[in-house]
Amino acid sequence: MAVWTFDGTFNGFLCLIHESSRRKERPEGILGGGKNQPFLFETVPTETDEGLAASVRTALAARLSRRVLTEGYYAFLSAMPGREMAVYRYFALAWTAGPGAAGLLADERVRTVHEAGRAVSRERHRFLGLLRFSELGGVLYAPFEPEGDILPLVAGHFARRLGGERWIIHDTGRSKAAVYENGTWRIAGFSTGGPLPLSGREREIRDLWKRYFSSTAVQTRKNPGLQRQFMPKKYWKHLPEKEDADGIR
Question: How many CB atoms lie within 10 A of CB 19?
């Protein structure tokens, strides 16, 4: 039984798909970088080649459709256990069934990927409205802790929206960040080592924002349950307007 390994990136995963096709071998399991390697089984390591990954991406989009490729990519970014093998099986099915595979929701392989991809899409949409930037010495900084590995999806959006700024979007749970400067962004390992010092101007802005948030609330129409439905409490940690709420600092 062979377990295939790769560096954990989507490009590395695409190279794994290519190598599997070249060898005409289907992996029994797939492990991304940083995961414990099983010593009971043979492992097949896969090298990441950015040029090859781009070619595989183009070929998959042409053969499977962009919808299938995007659904697979979003599911790959999810927190679903075994997502790598699930996406591999989905792409394998679509390679045979064609672009229509995305609509075969009665098939467990399709449904699993579809549901994981939808969860990622919902979380991305939610964070586009919940992400809060702070000014730190000429750089805008926004920390967040998503369930899915959605940093590239969020970074692409803000590269278009905040193209004239320098900014950092920090996935604190995964200790990495998207860093944007001079019109381009990249993802790299990142750690602050503790709370970052806020400038006096930033503190004034936060105070104004919290007062605005409080003053516009209609006390008689407060509905904490509904608020948590649209803005779950797990996202409050990095929201200035929710500081000091229920012990959050």
Answer: 20
